[in-house]
Design brief:
heterodimer, A: 91 residues, alpha+beta, Ubiquitin-like (UB roll), B: Cytidine Deaminase, domain 2, 3 helices
Chain lengths: 91, 132
């Protein structure tokens, strides 16, 4: 199950500067495990110790924010594209 | 130092005045550290004390910037009752948001208050705004 992942500038230190990473997995959480096996540390920037998505990042599957889908349990299919962005907020 | 055109400064201030009493927010894209385009963002919180980029709009804007080989250079927002200085919340979010410059406007009075900062590892440093 091949999935293309678009990585934001701030996280490209984990991908050797590459904008795109290739991964596989039938859920978002499986995909992140797979990515982390080749881009060590990336998962920890996206997922908290409690196993939830960090509030500091947005993850989209086919342009839908996964917070409005199934979160980390969102199902993935062959050819899906995933985009990671820093969330931006302040006070 | 942040070098920025008068037209962009005017656009930021107009956005801040228009959204007052809520905070406004937006992005200035750049290339090689020089501002190129300004994107007004929707404050998903619609709040007088905070802002959150609307996530769907942010995806479109980020992709537009990235496809043009530009970078998200400046995040701007307004404070509506306090000075144009980064709040504790701003400092917390700066660590992961990835913007070289934080541009702040205060709309607490009629007087223009626009200041720019770098925030690195929680350390706020004011920088000169050079209007060209």
């Amino acid at each position: 199950m091949a999935v293309e992942v678009r990585i934001p500038t701030i996280l490209r230190t984990y991908t050797g500067g590459e904008k795109l990473a290739q991964g596989s997995g039938d859920t978002l959480t499986a995909l992140l495990d797979d990515l982390d096996s080749r881009h060590s540390g990336l998962r920890g920037r996206l997922v908290t110790d409690e196993g939830n998505l960090h509030r500091f990042v947005n993850v989209y599957v086919n342009d839908e924010d996964v917070r409005f889908l199934g979160g980390l349990q969102t199902k993935l299919a062959d050819g899906d594209n995933v985009t990671v962005l820093p969330a931006v907020a302040g006070g | 130092m942040l070098e920025i055109s008068q037209a962009m400064v005017d656009a930021v201030v107009a956005h801040a005045r228009r959204d007052h009493p809520d905070e406004c927010c937006g992005v200035i894209a750049g290339r090689d550290g020089v501002p190129t385009r300004l994107f007004e963002m929707e404050n998903a919180e619609r709040s007088p004390t905070g802002f959150v980029f609307d996530s769907a709009q942010w995806l479109r804007v980020y992709r537009d910037i990235d496809d043009a080989d530009e970078e998200p250079l400046v995040v701007y927002h307004s404070h509506t009752a306090t000075e144009a200085y980064p709040s504790r919340t701003d400092i917390r979010w700066s660590a992961t948001a990835g913007f070289p410059h934080w541009l702040l406007v205060s709309t607490r009075s009629e007087e223009l208050e626009l200041r720019s900062y770098t925030i690195l590892d929680g350390v706020v440093t004011e920088e000169e705004v050079l209007v060209t």
